[in-house]
């Protein structure tokens, strides 16, 4: 819904709704896959094997220059920027790998942090402590370029950055600098700025940058769920009910006056 002017719709008395629990499993699965791709260097190892650079390994570190950069997840810290529905779906999956989880989200009730067993921290603390940082906030004026060079300098040089939220939340020029100057180790994005990512983007020349084509939500099951879910919201409104995923509840009084509904 970041393509809609919600404020203008509110001024005109128009309800704006979404389906907030759509594709939670797919996106959280994809996020976990990108975490594994980064920490286990899956893409780089695939390329090494395909080009025949598969050396015998009497000493495991002779196999590849990539191997010393690989890490085990158990005992490491995952920092979630945002603890909304997708991040909440990710938490039990990440805990299954033994990750300690911390998060920053000033808009989520502290009780939610306790419910999911996630430690609430400030953003600077999250950046400094996390081995993996994963972005899960909506795109707003407040979050545009939330992560820039200043934030990358606060991260571990061995850290991985995951973004399955929205591309403009991360300053891509700063990301390139961070990846090429060793401020962070790797990044894996499903979203970019702009989309699609330009073929001549310098990020695409880096072997420590992974990108997928804004496909985290995709599966036959999620595609099958997509048409009926918004239709159910429309039916609620036609029946005189409020949509479950109403984004601008402040419009209710104006909507009542406009349409004469209680």
Automatic annotation (TrEMBL):
PROSITE patterns: D_2_HYDROXYACID_DH_2 (PS00670), D_2_HYDROXYACID_DH_3 (PS00671)
GO molecular function terms attached to this record: NAD binding; oxidoreductase activity, acting on the CH-OH group of donors, NAD or NADP as acceptor; transcription corepressor activity
Domain D-isomer specific 2-hydroxyacid dehydrogenase NAD-binding: 32-216
Protein name: D-isomer specific 2-hydroxyacid dehydrogenase NAD-binding domain-containing protein
Pfam assignment, any one: 2-Hacid_dh_C
Lineage of the species this protein comes from: unclassified sequences, metagenomes, ecological metagenomes
Source organism: marine sediment metagenome
Keyword NAD belongs to the record: yes
Keyword annotations from UniProtKB, A to Z: NAD, Oxidoreductase
Coiled coil: none
UniProt family annotation: Belongs to the D-isomer specific 2-hydroxyacid dehydrogenase family.
CDD domains membership: CtBP_dh
């Amino acid at each position: 819904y970041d393509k809609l002017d919600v404020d203008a719709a509110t001024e005109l008395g128009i309800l704006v709704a979404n389906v907030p629990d759509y594709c939670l499993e797919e996106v959280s699965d994809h996020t976990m896959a990108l975490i594994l791709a980064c920490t286990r260097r899956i893409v780089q190892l695939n390329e090494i094997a395909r080009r025949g650079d598969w050396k015998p390994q009497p000493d495991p570190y002779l196999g590849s220059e990539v191997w010393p950069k690989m890490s085990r997840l158990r005992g490491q810290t995952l920092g979630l920027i945002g603890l909304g529905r997708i991040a909440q779906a990710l938490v039990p999956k990440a805990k299954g790998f033994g990750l300690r989880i911390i998060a920053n989200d000033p808009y989520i009730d502290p009780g939610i942090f306790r419910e999911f067993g996630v430690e609430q921290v400030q953003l600077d603390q999250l950046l400094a402590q996390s081995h993996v940082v994963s972005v899960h906030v909506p795109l707003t004026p407040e979050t545009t370029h939330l992560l820039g060079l200043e934030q990358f300098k606060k991260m571990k040089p061995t850290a991985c950055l995951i973004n399955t939220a929205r591309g403009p939340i991360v300053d891509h020029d700063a990301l390139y600098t961070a990846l090429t100057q060793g401020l962070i180790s790797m990044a894996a994005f499903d979203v970019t700025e702009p989309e699609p990512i330009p073929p001549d983007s310098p990020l695409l020349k880096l072997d420590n940058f992974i990108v997928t084509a804004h496909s985290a939500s995709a599966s036959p099951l999620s595609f099958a769920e997509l048409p009926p879910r918004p239709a159910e919201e429309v039916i609620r409104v036609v029946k005189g009910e409020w949509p479950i995923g109403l984004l601008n509840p402040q419009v209710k009084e104006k909507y009542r006056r406009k349409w004469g509904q209680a």
